[in-house]
Amino acid sequence: MTATQLGGDERLLRRSVWRKLLGRPELGSVVGAAAVFLFFAIVADSFLRPSSLSTVLYAASTIGIMAVPVALLMIGGEFDLSAGVLVTTSALVSSMFSYQMTANVWVGVAVSLLVTVAIGAFNGFMLTRTKLPSFIITLGTFLMLTGLNLGFTKLISGTVSTKSISDMQGFASAKKLFASQLSIGSVDLKVTILWWFVLVAVATWILLRTRFGNWIFAVGGGADAARAVGVPVFKTKIGLYMGVGFAAWISGQHLLFSYDVVQSGEGVGNELIYIIAAVIGGCLITGGYGSAIGSAVGAFIFGMTSKGIVYAEWNPDWFKFFLGAMLLLATLLNAWVRKRAEATA
Fold it and tell me: Within the chain, where are the H helices?
């Protein structure tokens, strides 16, 4: 007997827990994360030590902070190939402005925030105005930033790295915010883990509880259709790129205040790792599907793999192979889960 025959509306039937789980984009990545965790727990004796898990979380957080806005951008149907070097730009601007202007380091931190968010806005503006693919726009930005990072650093400091700012006013308080560690019992946790968790929570709230989150999914599903129903497509995409700039600012300040000096050539190639974490977490290349939580799971898989290989005492040269294999397997698993979800909807 159907729901209609029983006098009810089939649209009001409650979905089963299994169907709800199948509808979650991060389901495949969670299954993959559990498998990777179990694998390294078996093959690496030291993997389950609290200190080892803290190191894994730290490695995941350095990727996860950037993977969150990159995932939102991918859900909106776009890419950002400049995200990796933008982190380095953030650190370089903060360091060199503080050093050259002999100002409090917080002035450099504030200027860095304005610069990185402005670069994100530039990417979004160029994308919406020229209507060129985001691959081309952000590839151009990537190349320009790579050259500017190296050129300006050598012009100002005379070398490929910045000068030390550890003796400047405000360094200690900035380090506490961006590069300190929290002690819980005998385990030390880096503050980046907290930044990561907060960004995941905020991004999840935006996607699931706000109008802007609906706009992101709508734009990623089809910009023309979204525009037809009143979604501000241009503002949404510019906002997403500015979000990438904000996260790059956080990551850049962590880089600076962790090591005091910054190498101008860092960050090249990291943009692919951010994208990989988002894809492993369930984001579709075509847009319109994914979650911030999935990006966090993808970053956690990355952290487990990068450190698990070390704890297992394997040759680290195999890391990229395992990362590529995980990307393919996760993509196939996510595609299967999505088809099952659509079939049971």
Answer: 17-22, 27-43, 50-75, 83-101, 105-130, 134-157, 171-178, 191-209, 211-221, 223-228, 233-259, 270-280, 292-311, 319-344
pLDDT at 197 > cutoff 90: yes
Residue carrying the six token digits 């101008």: 264
> Count of CB atoms within 10 A of residue 282's CB?
30
Quick one: tokens of 197? 């968790």
Strand, coil or helix: 38:
helix
The CA distance from 316 to 54, in Å, is 20
Give yes or no for residue 242 having a pLDDT over 80.
yes
Other C-beta atoms closer than 10 Å to the C-beta of 106 total 17
Q: How many residues does the chain have?
A: 345
pTM of structure: 0.90
| Residue 6, C-beta contacts closer than 8 angstroms, at least 6 positions apart | none
- With 0-12 CB in 10 A as exposed, 13-18 as middle and 19+ as buried, what is 169? middle
Q: DSSP secondary structure string, 312-335?
A: TT--GGGHHHHHHHHHHHHHHHHH
Residues in Cβ contact with 194 at an 8 Å cutoff, skipping those fewer than 6 apart:
182
According to DSSP, the residues that pair with 182 across neighbouring strands are: 189
In whole angstroms, what is the distance from residue 135 CA to residue 141 CA?
10
Can you give the pLDDT at residue 338?
65
> Mapping DSSP to helix (H, G, I), strand (E, B) and coil, where does residue 46 land?
coil
Distance CA 1, CA 174 (A): 65
